[in-house]
Design a protein that fits this description.
Largest sheet of chain B: 5 strands, mixed
CATH class of the largest domain in chain B: Alpha Beta
Number of helices of chain A: 4
Helix content of chain A: 55-70%
Largest sheet of chain A: none
Structural class of chain A: mainly alpha
CATH superfamily of chain A: ACP-like
Radius of gyration of chain A: 11 Å
Strand content of chain B: 15-25%
Order of helices and strands of chain B: EEHHEHEHEHEEEEHEHEHEHHEE
Oligomer: heterodimer
Radius of gyration of chain B: 20 Å
CATH class of chain A: Mainly Alpha
Shape of chain B: globular
Distance between the termini of chain B: 44 Å
Chain lengths: 82, 343
Amino acid sequence: MAATQEEIVAGLAEIVNEIAGIPVEDVQLDKSFTDDLDVDSLSMVEVVVAAEERFDVKIPDEDVKNLKTVGDATDYIQKHQG
Amino acid sequence: MSKIKPSKGAPYARIMGVGGYRPTRVVPNEVILEKIDSSDEWIRSRSGIATRHWASDEETVAAMSIEASGKAIADAGITAEQIGAVVVSTVSHFQQTPAIATYIADQLGTDKAAAFDISAGCAGFGYGLTLAKGMVVEGSAEHVLVIGVERLSDLTDLEDRATAFLFGDGAGAVVVGPATEPAIGPTVWGSEGDKSDTIKQTVAWNDFRLGDVSKLPLDSKGDVKFPAITQEGQAVFRWAVFEMAKVAQNALDAAGITPDDLDVFIPHQANMRIIDSMVKTLKLPEHVTVARDIETTGNTSAASIPLAMERLLATGEAKSGDTALVIGFGAGLVYAATVVTLP
């Protein structure tokens, strides 16, 4: 069953927490991965791969750069999840 | 039809000795920061690199190779005359003809050993090792010298903040010879040419020679930039960590080794973040010693694995007889992984 927006944000928060050590409550829709959450470009790749597995979605390299905020990633996953 | 006598090789092959050469000049991040807008903290956090070695004019591809090879030959306990073939892996020897391997073979004092260069980027050591093992077991050479050597400082764009800090120079060599039991496992290797654009030379030599300024990258002074190595960092990182972890696992499986049996992990020293993520993805146990030579050597492409191997043995972090997983991966994209017994 497709995940809801709320479930995706919660899932991303767990992933970002595990990879970058950011508190779960800081991960919100309007937050930028790089500017607000201090997720650098390489950690972003790890976040993306973990999100792919968790939400059964493919996020190709060329789309990763467009995922600036948690909201961008959430929208992308909602739209593309299998 | 006449009967052809078959060649006769050794039952198995092993790495008998290893040697390395690091250029005298140590280059700290502060020197890199003279040309790019970055910081020591940024470079260390993205790559784990604190210093690298850059070669002087005298520390040529040949000179560094001869130094490293002399040590490897001595470590193997053989003489140069016993070497039947010399394989040199490099992408930064700027004279393509003749192969530099022939000069090195002669200078080392081999007895007309077969000698040739290969181009397999950062997987070059694994490709060379695989060829060497084949020669020893097939019988075309009793001992093979495999050299990985680079002067990547010559192919570095010092104004590119994504790569200026990454590369280093050096040479590493091993002697592969006969063994009575398996000491080099099956190689898991391959290429993914559909990703050839992810790591490449910025400009082909021929385009550089033609000198059409409208098509060539220019530096901050407006001069045509010398060709350099460039890469798509995120794409390479993803491929290296997640796809290469599968290749590494396949090499373990092919050798019949579990992560618990492993003593040492020597991945190509591409980036500390790649190394750390690979260790995590492969779920390597705590007892496995991981080569992290990149901190003080930078990325030396084909030279990185033998250099890291030599250092681990020299410092006592690894010892002769240890079981090591080695994996190289890079421009091509190409990769090669195998399990070896350390010399």
